[in-house]
Amino acid sequence: MTADSLIKDLKKRQFHPVYLLHGPEPYYIDQITDYFEDHVLDESERSFNLTILYGKETEFKTVVDNARRFPMMSEYQLVILKEAQSMKELAELETYVKNPSPSTILVICYKHGNIDGRTSFAKLLKTQAIVFESKKVYDNQMPAWITSHLESKGFQIGPAEAALISDYLGAELSKVANEIEKLALNLPQGHKVNKDDIEKYIGISKDFNVFELQDALASRNKEKAYRIIQYFMSNPKNNPLIVVVATLFSYFSKIYLMQFLRNSPDREVQKSLGLSNTFFVKNYRAAAQAFSKSQTEKIIHLLRIYDLKSKGVGRDSFTEQAMMQELIYKILSA
After folding, report:
1. Which H or E run contains 53?
2. What are phi and psi of 133, to 5 degrees?
3. Torsion angle of C-alpha atoms 211, 212, 216, 219, degrees rounded to 10
4. Taking the C-alpha atoms of 283, 286, 287 and 289 in order, what is their torsion angle to the nearest 10 degrees?
5. Cβ distance 149 to 173 under 8 Å?
6. The whole model's pTM is what?
7. Which of 2, 211, 251, 256: disulfide with 296, CB 3.0–4.6 Å?
8. pLDDT tens-digit profile of 211-270?
9. Which H helix or E strand runs over 104?
10. Which residue segments constitute the domains of the chain, with CATH numbers given?
């Protein structure tokens, strides 16, 4: 079950007495919970029939007592248990779940992880409740998620632009969704998002970002690489050394793997490198030709050293900016 399909059922007013929303990704749990809170009851019904409880400060008896009440001037009452992962007596709700009130909708929100599927309570929920698992979206899946999310709002975006947003914002879905909302509010329906839009509304420089740095290193364009590094050094909060090193380590690790996949088809390369789109395969093929295996090995070893330095190990007295500049010089000189 996806978040969209669950919300689609709720829009049809196909309700179930008990719902469990759990998993490591809070974005979808919040999205579904907000829909329950804002749309299941109308404004006049919410005053008497909406109860929100928090696991850390709630006993199971309080949940049961509220769930057993009858709705007032409404077909349903809604009880939402937020932060259920913090409720010590959560499993005590087993008795209620076995025989829930048909006029109550109980929503259990279990964030930042999965409920233990080995327990009798979890097994009961799987048979007696609607269970939604909010799975983590990994870094290499983010460009596709961004593309899909924009398409659902009536916009288009190319793979390079989606990857740029993904690399800059990371895999925190709520953060990415908020930035996409800025695009949606300022651009006409059907518009194809470009790098100018991203720079204007999200604040990601189209010329000075880690993708442009990677291209500059792969083409041995020293002038461009140092220009980007100067920009990074002038904006240290947005471009910390530890993030730049981690991104370059991932990039050169893929280049090294690409050197063993030169004759493989694009689809196989995409899968092996964990790329979001075959669009990027040609870039890695070109980069694998620009560096020999031994050069790539030296650069990866160098990045390991600077990763430790960025974390304070063997850092000496150099500033992050000085270390970043030194790192790029050594990569270009490898």
Report:
1. strand 50-54
2. -105, 120
3. 70
4. 160
5. no
6. 0.79
7. 256
8. 899 999 999 999 999 999 999 988 888 888 998 999 999 999 999 999 999 999 999 999
9. strand 104-111
10. 3-133 (3.40.50.300), 139-201 (1.10.8.60), 210-332 (1.20.272.10)
